Structures are given as C-alpha cells and as structure tokens.
Amino acid sequence: MRERMWVAYAFLAPVAVVMAVIVIYPLIGSVVSSFTDLDRSNSATVFRPGSEEFVGIDNYVTVLTSEEFRGRLTWTVVWTAANVFFHFTFGLGLALLLNQRFRGRTVYRLILMLPWAVPAFISAVSWRYIFNGEYGVLNLFLEGFGIDGPNWLSDPFWAYVAPIIVNVWLGVPFMMVALLGGMQSIPADLYEAARVDGANRRQAFWNVTIPQLKSVSVAVTMLGIIWTFNLFVVIFLTTGGGPGGRTDILVTESFNLFQAGQYAIAATYSVIILSLLLVFVTFYQRIFRTEDVAR
Amino acid sequence: MKQPLWEKVATHVILIFASLIAIFPILWVISTSFKNQFDVLSTEIHLIPEKPTLENYESLFNPGSATGGFFWNWFGNSLLIAVLTTILSVFLASTAAYSLSRYRFWGKRPMTSFFLTSQMFPAVILLVPLFQLLAIQFRLLNTPWALVLAYATTAIPFCVLMLKSYFDTLPIELEEAAKIDGLGPFGAFWRIVVPLSTPGIAVTAFYAFITAWNEFLYALVFLTKPEAFTLPIGVRLFINQFTQNWGGTMALSVIVTIPVMLFFYVAQRYLISGLSTGGVKG
User: Fold this and answer.
1) Fewer Cβ close by (within 10 Å): the C or N end of chain B?
2) What is the span of the domain harbouring residue A183?
C-alpha cells in the first residue's frame, strides 16, 4: 500500500508543481493584492521592484459601498438569470420536440447546434454588425414589419437587451443537446410502465420525463450560471460596457480596472466574484443535493 | 400513444422557425464576407451578394489593410499557441487524471475539489498576478509562451477532469494482468491505459485546442505588438477602427470559425458525455 501511495504522488507531481506556480501562487497573489494599494504606478516592472503597501480591508470597503459596484452586481445577476432562464426554457422546448421520432430530426439537430460551434467572440462581433442602427439587418427586418428599430448598442434600455439576445442565441444549443441527452437516457420501461398504468402522453410527460430530467437539469443550470456570470467576451465585444459603462458586468468591470492600472481594485473585484460563486454553489448544492447525483 | 396531425405540423413549424434563427446570422456573416464595401452598408437585405467579390479575403493579406499584412503571423501564432497548450495540458493532465482515477491517497479529495473549483474561476482572478509573473518576472510579453502558460491554468484542470472520467470507464483488470506480466505502474499506464484511451485523449486534446484557439481575454493583455497577435485579437483590431471594415471582419471571422466547426461535427457526441460525466458529476 505504501508503495502504491508513492506511485500516486509520482503520477501527480508534474501537475501539482505546474498548478502551484501558475494557479495557486497567482491565486494567493490576487487575494494578497486585494489588501494592498497596488496600481500601475507602484507595481513591480522590469526596471524596479514593487512598492505597494498594505491597506487592510480598505479596497473591500470602497468597492462594496460604492454605488457603481451595486449597479454592476444587480445587472450581473439580471444578466445571468435572464440568460440561463431563456437557455433552459428554449433548450428544454427544442429538446422535447427533437426527442420525438420523425423524418429530418438529425438535420434539425445539426442546424440548431450551429451557434454553439461558432466561437463566442466571433458571434459577438458579428451581432454588432447585425445590431447596427442604420444598416444592421435586424432593424432592416423590423422595418419590413413597419417597426422602427432602436439603436441596439447605444440606447440605454436596448443595450441591456442586445447582449442577452446574443448570448441566448449562442447558449441555447448546449442546453438543448444536454437535455436531449438526458431524455434519451430515460429507460423505456418507465414509459411502458406509465402506459400500462393508463397514463396518457401528458401524464407520462409530467410524471416520467420531468422528474427523470431533474439531475441533468440541476447540473447544467449550475454550469450555465457559473459560465454566464463569468462570461467576459459577449459583453466586452457587443456593447463594450456602453453606453457609459452601464452594461458592464462584474468581470468586464474588473478587466477595465486592470486595463486602467487599478490593479488592487481589479483584484478586489475578482476575489468578490469568486466568493459570490463559491457561496452560490454551496447553497445550490445544498438545496438540490447534487451529491446524490454524483457517484 | 398516437400523435395528432396538428402536433406534427406544429413541431415542424417551430423547428423550422428556430432553425432559421440559428442559421441566419451565420449565413449573413458568410454572405457579408463576399460583399463589396458598398453593399456591406446597404439598407436592403440581400442574402446572396449582388456582386460577389473576394476582395475582403484578399485584403486580409494586404499590408495596407487593417491586418497590416500580418494575417499569416496571426494564423501561425494562434496555431502554435493552441498546439503547445494542447500538448502541455494533455501530457501533464493524463498522468494526474490516471492517479486520481486509480489510486487512493492522502489529499485526493481536496485535489479533486480544487480541479472542480478551478472551473469556477473567472479569468480575471489570475490576471493581475499572472501579468506580473509572466510579463514582468519571466519577461514573456508578446511571446507565445505567456499565453501557453496562461491557457494552461484552465486547460490543465479541465483536461484532468475529462481524462479522469474517461479512465474511470476503463476496466482495471487489464492493468492488473499487465502487472502480473511484470509491467510496473508506469509501464502499465503507458503501454496499456494510454493506447486504450486514444478516443478520450483525442477529444480532450481537441477541446483544449479549441479553447486556446478561441481565447480572447489573456491574449488581449499579453500581446501588444500586431505581429504577435492571435486571430481573436486581430478581429478586434477591425472593429476598433474608426471606419468599420465589416467585409474584412466577416472574412476573418469565417476563416477563424472553419476549424472550430469541423471539430464540432467530429467531437460533439463525445463532448457532451465528457462534460456530463467529468465536469459536472466529478
């Protein structure tokens, strides 16, 4: 047994060393920086050592009490909730339709999966063109129905809607495919048993399909929430946080602060983001008891 | 359980409508990439370009255009960084995943939850210290290595989880037989487990490649010279210009997307099962 332990550590050693250098050490570094006044003017460069000083919890007080942070947080929560809601409902609806037997099912599935195969940054850039107020194809379409389309990316209200549209478009296929996989792994005997018991199709749906989908739904919504909360590229490349920084979510704001040289505040933001996610996941798992699902 | 006719019709109507929404933006991008600079700004909808042209694709190679003639540099950098990230991550992750899959040892649980938790890290959380480590201490700014290491921070944990879930499905008897035949633990891993896991390793490798190929945030920070750019940062250069060059942007987008699309159709089936067994259930 002792010999086997030694082997296990030998297999793990390379990853452990690399992770320690490029993840653990920076992670600790990030937490430490969030308690300092680190910025571009006092950070270490190739020419000089860093001269930042500890400031205790000042950064957290500054960030958590600022109007700005609360605005970003509210919008990030709305952004995440709206996206995951639409991903899940559209994904579930499409998966239910595709779970029937009919001609052309594979073709529909392949077409509906396409948005997933497009890199997110390409989707974001392409939708910018589609959203353009004057010659964007979305507004040209709306014009065809006699609707005067808004300036999607600069209007104070529609700038919130536009990135959600982009992200719903690119996120539905994942949910659809995951839920479809879940439906197809439901044992046929369950439907057979329901039929023998005299259940009609609707009853079979509510009493077999939906309960059987619970574990996969819990898992994919959790993943969806984490991914959307941290999704940088869609906001950054569609609205770029505009108009006036209103549509920045917490991660894009943290990035902007980094680019502006306010390293300590950027680190504070990112530590807060990770803490929020950790708290969320802990509660989520407690509520839905995903440990029952796990092996 | 017979289905009424109206339901069949409704199914097709909804699926056709959804398919149009899914595919139209993609067709529009492809179409735009073949339009000339005037039709790109047209206020009429023409899905088939009226005067199709290759000028947008040609302009990608032109030093006077938004690419500055660096298209092949960007392409080469993207390819090199993605390949190096893949090799490094899969190579390192495979032994670690094997260890987590087959052995019991002190520290196994925290190790596994560390890999799971790291899937939750926003990329920005490592940004400040990674920048200081890689750009200042290691002086890797504008080199592929900065990005290979930055991408490994997410690729390695992901590969470990994917590969572990794959190794878990392999019967342990084969390795036990190999050990009876005199192979040590490393020999059993290298000669028995790795060859048997080729499909799992291939999908994991593809996934690592695509994630690196698509990455945007770190590239934006670590690459400042146009000749060092990757394709994603190159695309941004187009939309940042004062005059927006939509035709060129779309041509570049098409080129970036083709390898990803090809991969998707090969790997989609395995990806889902890998995600649901490895990433989610752990």
Assistant:
1) N
2) 67-260
